[in-house]
From TrEMBL:
GO terms for cellular component: plasma membrane. It is found in: Membrane. The keyword Cell wall biogenesis/degradation does not apply. Residues 31-274 form the ABC transporter domain. SUPFAM superfamilies: P-loop containing nucleoside triphosphate hydrolases. This is ABC transporter domain-containing protein. Signal peptide: none annotated. Its main location: membrane.
Length: 624
């Protein structure tokens, strides 16, 4: 596939592949899009047209800008060109060196989103290095990847802040312009032949925006095909553009050299002033504001009709005067490439399916390390430790050395184990995937890793803390509460608690992955916890037959039963009255759940653990 990309003619733009690595070499890509139409369903019988017959072409070494007011379809078109439009109805023709979007093109495409989706606790160097480890092929050594990261940092002017944390809402990090350059740097690591940027100057001051666009222009001059959406560029930024696509409510009103845009609009009767920023004039035209309608717009007399009429006239003029000529340019390139296209079809029939750049195990190891580095500074860790330890000590004081004759108190303590470690990990796990949704979408769209490697790395990476806290809790409360002073019984009780933690965490992961909304997921977790608490076998011993199935869905019930099973057996007795001894198995709270079939209980919890996590994994596959 890479050889095919390199062999195509490219509209008189000749770019040599960079020599440092064939797998990272820069292969020219000519992107063409013709009559692109995109529709979304609003209701069962109603459709909305987002893009209506947009066309254009951009060659290696060129910077094409998509200009238009908010809601004109710029981001939608950019997303379609990046092969990331997964919903709605997309029609038209989009080709890359006269071939459709495929895995090889995807690996050579960099896509910079409008929002800088970065891990706040990683430094600039760590962010780029972990990206390099995931996106660069294993044919490069570790040192080569580090050197490549250093080159990108130097090229983007990030040397000064390379050891600074990215920062987030809760603490200050690098500046907005530096974050944008880090986002661009993540895509530059793969040395993309095609670079797409969604409003890279949004939210930046004019000086920073100028610096960012200068960097982007330099990247284009290096032989890359660069397309960017931009909302309101300054005059200096506008003159950096080689080509321009101007959109108005999804329809195209201009495509061609940016330098001749004003001349074109003057030729069709929309006079323009040379003293004004060209981008401002073009945006006014895209909004339907022309010298003929500006008075009506300001006075409010039939303003909407005037704007609509002006926009329709601009669309009609483009279709009549310019579109045919531009389509002829695209068609002429198709004719010149006819024989090469025929050869491509022959070669393409033997093309291998898309392969990942790195192995599953490599992705897993890198994601584990990145997760540990990112969460090493989480402020709530100390709070969580204090919370768990303080609850354990308080509970230990309340149940301090409970006598064996106080059977109700001792059984209540065991049920407290099952309840506390049934809801605590559940609530913590609910936040896991909703908090990383944007990052997951961004990295999966870039083909950075397999979902399975991410899923296991993300869930396993949290286990040390998730299992350390219940270990400390069990050690404190078990011995302070005066439960059976037998090491083997303690170890079994501890393992049961850890087992319950894993099952509860699994359900929380499933809730978070399915809903992807923290508020909804925590609400569902609250209801579930309450149901499990009531049906856990301690508060209600005689559940009505028509709803008795509910307790078998509660992992708290199985945890409670297992703890009873390792703490007592059929021959254990307690002093139920002075000088009178009764069997523990006959105590109502124990009798209602029983002391047998513990192996079956373990198997049922194992099914829950695997089932909940499998559901969470399937739910993540649908995240987009």
């Amino acid at each position: 596939m890479e050889e095919e990309l390199a062999s195509k003619p490219h509209h008189n733009h000749h770019v040599q592949p960079q020599p440092h690595s064939q797998s990272m070499a820069l292969y020219p890509i000519t992107l063409k899009f013709e009559k692109v139409v995109y529709k979304v369903n609003l209701k069962a019988t109603k459709e909305k047209v987002i893009l209506n017959g947009v066309m254009g072409m951009v060659c290696p070494g060129e910077l094409l800008a998509m200009l238009g007011p908010s809601g004109s379809g710029k981001t939608t078109l950019l997303t379609a060109l990046g092969g990331r439009l997964l919903t709605g109805k997309l029609a038209g023709k989009i080709t890359y060196n006269n071939q459709p979007f495929c895995g090889s093109i995807k690996r050579r495409t960099g896509f910079v989103t409008q929002d800088d989706v970065l891990y706040p606790h990683l430094t600039v160097t760590e962010t780029l290095l972990f990206t390099a480890m995931l996106r660069l092929p294993t044919s490069l050594t570790h040192d080569e990847k580090v050197n490549h990261v250093d080159r990108v940092i130097a090229e983007l002017g990030l040397t000064r802040c390379r050891n600074s944390m990215i920062g987030g809402p809760l603490f200050r990090g690098i500046s907005g312009g530096e974050k944008k350059r880090v986002s661009i740097g993540q895509e530059m690591l793969i040395n993309p032949s095609l670079l797409l940027l969604d409003e890279p100057t949004s939210g930046l001051d004019s000086t920073t925006a100028q610096r960012i666009m200068t960097t982007i222009k330099r990247l284009a001059s290096g032989g890359r095909t660069v397309i960017t959406t931009i909302h309101q560029p300054s005059s200096r930024i506008y003159h950096m553009f080689d080509k321009l696509v101007l959109l108005s409510e999804g329809s195209q009103i201009y495509y061609g050299p940016a330098s001749t845009a004003l001349e074109y609009f003057s030729s069709i009767g929309f006079s323009t002033s040379v003293t004004v920023n060209p981008a401002d004039i073009l945006l006014d035209l895209a909004n339907g504001i022309s010298p003929d309608t500006v008075h009506d717009y300001e006075q409010g007399d039939n303003a909407e009709d005037a704007l609509k009429s002006a926009r329709q006239k601009l669309v009609t003029c483009f279709e009549t005067n310019l579109q045919t000529r531009r389509e002829a340019d695209v068609y002429e390139l198709d004719v010149c490439n006819y024989y090469q296209e025929k050869e491509r079809l022959i070669i393409g029939s033997h093309t291998r399916p898309e392969q990942w750049c790195t192995s599953w195990w490599h992705q897993f190891k890198v994601l584990i390390r990145r997760g540990i580095r990112e969460r090493r500074f989480e402020a709530f860790n100390k709070l969580r430790i204090f919370q768990v330890v303080s609850v354990a000590i308080l509970a230990g004081l309340l149940w301090w050395h409970t006598p064996t004759s106080h059977i109700a108190d001792r059984i209540g303590m065991l049920f407290f184990f099952s309840v506390f470690w049934g809801f605590y990990p559940l609530y913590n796990a609910v936040f896991t995937f909703p908090q990383e949704r944007r990052m997951l979408i961004k990295e999966r769209s870039s083909g950075m890793y397999r979902l399975s490697s991410y899923f296991l790395a993300r869930t396993i990476g949290d286990l040390p803390l998730e299992l350390a806290l219940p270990t400390a809790f069990t050690f404190i409360l078990y011995w302070m509460g005066g439960l059976k002073p037998d090491p083997s019984t303690f170890i079994l009780s501890w393992l049961i608690v850890l087992y319950t933690v894993l099952v509860a965490q699994s359900l929380g992961l499933a809730f978070g992955a399915i809903l992807m909304d923290v508020k909804q997921a925590t609400t569902l977790a609250s209801v579930t916890t309450l149901v499990f608490l009531i049906a856990g076998g301690y508060y209600v011993q005689q559940i009505p037959p028509f709803i008795v199935w509910l307790k078998y869905l509660s992992y708290s019930y199985y945890c409670y039963k297992l703890l009873l099973g390792v703490q007592y057996d059929d021959n254990d007795v307690y002093e139920c009255a002075k000088g009178v001894y009764c069997k523990v198995a006959d105590f109502q709270a124990v009798k209602s759940v029983g002391l047998h079939n513990l192996t079956m209980d373990l198997l049922i919890m194992a099914l829950m653990l695997i089932g909940y996590r499998f559901v969470a994994y399937l739910a993540l596959r649908k995240v987009q």
